[in-house]
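stage 2 :: seqdesign
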C-alpha cells in the first residue's frame, strides 16, 4: 500500500511536519505501507484566486501534489489548529485540489492528525478539517488524534515522549492501515467484477449471468 503524508503547516520547524515523521516511522517499522512525505512549502501554492485560475490555470504545485495523491492508496494529513479551526494554508490546498477534474482527493482514505503546543492538541481543528475533505468525498477515518504540548511531546528520535500516547498513535495508525487495505482490496474486487466480460461474471450460486444487477 502506498501512503502520501503531508503537513498543513508550511514552516520548516513545523511540529506537524515532525508528527509526519513520527507517523512515517510507525508505518515503516511495522511494514504497514510505503510512505512518501511531501513538503508543501517548496510547492509555492498561491492563494486561490479565480482570476489567476482563468488566466494561468491550476498552479504547477497543485498539479504535482494532485498527481502524488492520485498515485497513493491512502493519505495522512497532520494539521495545526489556527483560531480553533483549519489553517488557511491547508484549506487553500484543498480548494485548489477541488478545481482539478477528477478531484484527486475523491475516494481516497484519509487519516487526520494534529499537533499543537497547546493542551488540546489541535483537536478542534480536526473537526473543521474533516468537513471540506468530506464534501469532496474523501473517506476520512472516523478516529482522529491530536498531540498536545507537541513541542515537548515529539522527540528528535521521531517518537512521542509519552509511552502511552506513542502506543495509542501506533494503534491508530495500524487500525487505519488495516482499514485502508481492506478498502483497497474490496475496490480491486469490485473493479475486477466491473471490468470482467459480462458473460463471465460469477453469480452467488456459482453460475454466470449477463445481468449487472444481482
Ligand atoms: C494564526 C495562528 C492561530 C493559532 N491558533 C491556535 C489555536 O486556536 N489553537 C492552538 O492550539 N494553537 C494555535 N496556534 C498555535 C499553533 O498551534 C502553533 O503555532 C503550532 O506550532 C503551529 O503548528 P506548526 O508547528 O505545525 O507550524 C495558532 C498559531 C497561529 C500562527
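stage 2 :: out
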Amino acid at each position: 500500500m502506498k501512503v502520501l503524508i503531508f503537513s498543513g503547516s508550511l514552516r520548516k520547524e513545523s511540529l506537524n511536519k515532525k508528527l509526519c515523521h513520527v507517523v512515517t516511522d510507525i508505518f515503516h517499522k511495522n511494514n504497514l505501507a510505503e510512505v512518501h512525505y511531501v513538503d508543501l512549502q517548496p510547492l509555492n501554492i498561491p492563494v486561490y484566486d479565480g482570476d489567476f485560475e482563468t488566466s494561468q490555470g491550476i498552479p504547477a504545485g497543485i498539479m504535482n501534489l494532485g498527481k502524488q495523491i492520485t498515485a497513493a492508496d491512502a493519505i495522512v494529513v497532520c494539521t495545526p489548529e489556527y483560531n480553533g479551526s483549519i489553517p488557511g494554508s491547508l484549506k487553500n490546498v484543498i480548494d485548489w485540489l477541488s478545481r482539478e477534474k477528477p478531484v484527486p482527493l475523491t475516494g481516497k482514505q484519509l487519516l487526520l492528525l494534529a499537533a499543537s503546543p497547546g493542551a488540546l492538541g489541535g483537536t478542534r481543528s480536526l473537526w473543521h478539517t474533516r468537513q471540506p475533505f468530506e464534501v469532496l468525498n474523501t473517506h476520512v477515518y472516523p478516529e482522529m488524534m491530536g498531540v498536545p504540548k507537541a513541542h515537548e511531546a515529539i522527540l528528535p528520535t521521531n517518537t512521542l515522549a509519552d509511552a502511552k500516547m506513542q502506543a495509542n498513535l501506533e494503534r491508530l495508525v495500524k487500525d487505519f492501515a488495516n482499514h485502508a487495505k481492506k478498502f483497497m482490496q474490496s475496490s480491486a474486487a469490485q473493479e475486477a467484477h466491473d471490468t470482467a466480460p459480462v458473460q463471465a461474471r460469477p453469480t452467488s450460486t456459482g453460475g454466470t449471468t449477463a445481468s449487472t444487477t444481482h
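stage 3 :: structure notes
- The chain has one domain: 2-200.
- The CA atoms of residues 43 and 60 lie 8 Å apart.
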